[in-house]
Design brief:
CATH architecture: Up-down Bundle
Oligomer: single chain
CATH topology: Four Helix Bundle (Hemerythrin (Met), subunit A)
Shape: elongated
Structural class: mainly alpha
Length: 160
């Protein structure tokens, strides 16, 4: 391939956004499955609560999209929800914002190297994949917590 040829595309930006949003829909169901009194209280082995993990995911999602659009990266700040209702409200707002702002990221920019939040330097597409990987990892912790609480988690493949 010539040096000036565009990089091959495995997945379109719209398909990537939809893939991520499928994971976000499933994570939302996991948040909703937690009893209110356990979401920010229950943990195993000194791990963070699922409420704290969800706040981390929220704190990264929209700020990453905004950083990819503007190349301006504010310091990472975890979301501040303290109830399931507030966490779900913020989750839904972030979902809408991702859908609205995602098209503002030019497709070629996903090949550019960025430094997110002053600490993670990688191609933009790798950063988006990191967001998904991080969410899947933390959602797995949530599944373990739900099972330990005697609650059947949503099927892992149900992302619609």
């Amino acid at each position: 391939m010539p040096a000036d040829a565009p990089a091959p595309v495995f997945i379109s930006p719209d398909a990537m956004r939809e893939h991520w949003q499928g994971h976000r829909r499933l994570t939302r169901r996991v948040i909703d499955a937690f009893p209110e009194d356990q979401l920010f209280a229950f943990s195993i082995g000194a791990m963070r609560t699922f409420g704290e993990l969800a706040r981390e995911m929220l704190g990264m999602a929209v700020p990453t999209i905004e950083g990819l659009i503007s190349d301006e990266w504010a310091a990472y700040v975890e979301a501040q929800a303290t109830t399931r209702e507030e966490l779900l409200r913020q989750w839904d707002l972030a979902t809408e914002t991702i859908d609205a702002r995602w098209p503002s990221i030019p497709a070629p920019h996903f090949q550019d190297v960025v430094t997110a939040f002053g600490q993670w330097t990688m191609p933009a597409h790798a950063l988006v994949l990191y967001l998904v990987d991080n969410e899947v990892h933390h959602r797995g912790q949530g599944y373990v917590y739900l099972r330990a609480l005697g609650i059947e988690p949503p099927p892992f493949y149900a992302r619609n």
